[in-house]
Write a structure and sequence with these properties.
There is one protein chain. Helix content is about 55%, strand content about 10%. The chain is α/β, with parallel strands linked by helices. It has three domains: about 5-55, Multidrug-efflux Transporter Regulator, Chain: A, Domain 2 (Orthogonal Bundle), CATH 1.10.1660; about 85-160, Methionine synthase domain (Methyltransferase, Methionine Synthase (B12-binding Domains), Chain A, domain 1), CATH 1.10.1240.10; about 175-295, 3-Layer(aba) Sandwich (Rossmann fold). The strands form two sheets. Strands 5-4-6-7 form a four-stranded parallel β-sheet, with helices on both faces. A three-stranded antiparallel β-sheet has the order 1-3-2. Strand 2 and strand 3 (about 40-45) form a beta hairpin. Mean pLDDT is about 90; it is low at about 65-75.
């Protein structure tokens, strides 16, 4: 069986019904499946999650069969998920990502998502607190820069892979342009923003890191996005960041778009100096602003 695909038997155990019920729901079109060349039904986790959301399925004690593949997860993880004990889950993620095992890290995030912890909750309550702890330990010289880089690359791989499992809303016509300015190499934050917007129905164009201001402006003029999202954690200088954001904001205004700047820009010292339509302090604040634009639209 391909990774990420579940059998009829596995889905029936997850939803606590017999296999004939799963087949009936599939035949009615309520639960999407993939047919193998041999005629067997296989299910994507994101389609099972969508089914549960659509029909308000009671899954308070749902546990995914893939759990046994995780090397460092014990019964305490199950309880933490059921009670949404985010500090415990973040600590487990912290330990998992520092090991540098991409598959284990992905399986843990996939396990969380399958157990109805949302994409934003995973990023905001589990992933970012873990990386704040990693940053603190690096400053205290408890871990080396090579360990921080390994953890970052491991997490980035896992959240990109998780995106294939995340349920996507229908496209609503909004266009989002996401990237980092020149000399900014921290990619996790802007990748999370891009993923959240894509799942919310936006057509996203991802520019990556270290993009010169003039190239960013060219992309704005080319794609004509409704929103431009910039993430910055370590600008070359504060003045350069302020000047670059002002230039992006001016271009975005011309096309009737909105500029959103996250990361260090939300700090008290910079927030009043950065020219932008929104400087969110969290992914939840970002989506509150973005959703307000859709309502006006």
């Amino acid at each position: 069986m391909k990774p990420g695909l579940l059998s009829t038997n596995e889905v029936s155990k997850m939803l606590k019904v017999n296999e004939s019920t799963i087949k009936r729901w599939t035949d009615k079109g309520s639960l999407r499946c993939i047919k193998t060349p041999g005629g067997h039904r296989k299910y994507k986790m994101k389609d099972v999650v969508q089914f549960m959301d659509t029909f308000s399925y009671d899954v308070t004690d749902l546990l995914v069969p893939a759990k046994e593949q995780l090397s460092k997860v014990t019964v305490s993880t199950d309880y933490a998920i059921l009670t949404k004990d985010y500090p415990v889950l973040s600590d487990i993620f912290f330990n998992t990502v520092l090991e540098g095992n991409r598959e284990n890290t992905f399986q843990f995030l996939n396990f969380l998502y399958a157990n109805r912890i949302s994409q934003i909750e995973i990023y905001e309550r589990i992933l970012f607190p873990a990386f704040q702890k990693i940053g603190e330990q690096w400053i205290q010289k408890k871990i080396g820069i090579e360990q921080e880089h390994l953890a970052s690359n491991t997490a980035l791989h896992a959240i990109i892979k998780l995106q294939d499992q995340v349920h996507k809303k229908p496209k609503h016509g909004g266009i989002a342009l996401c990237g980092c300015l020149e000399f900014e190499y921290h990619e996790i934050g802007i990748t999370c923003v891009n993923n959240i917007l894509e799942a919310d129905g936006w057509t996203t164009y991802y520019l990556g890191t270290n993009l010169p201001k003039d190239s960013f402006i060219d992309a704005i003029e080319n794609y004509l996005p409704n929103i431009v999202c910039v993430s910055t954690m370590t600008p070359r200088t504060q003045k350069q960041l302020i000047d670059d954001c002002a230039a992006l904001h001016e271009t975005t205004r011309i096309i009737n778009g909105k500029l959103i700047v996250g990361g260090i820009a939300s700090s008290s010292t910079l927030k009043k100096k950065i020219s932008a339509d929104c400087i969110p302090g969290s992914f939840s604040e970002l989506m509150t602003f973005v959703n307000s634009l859709l309502i006006k639209k």
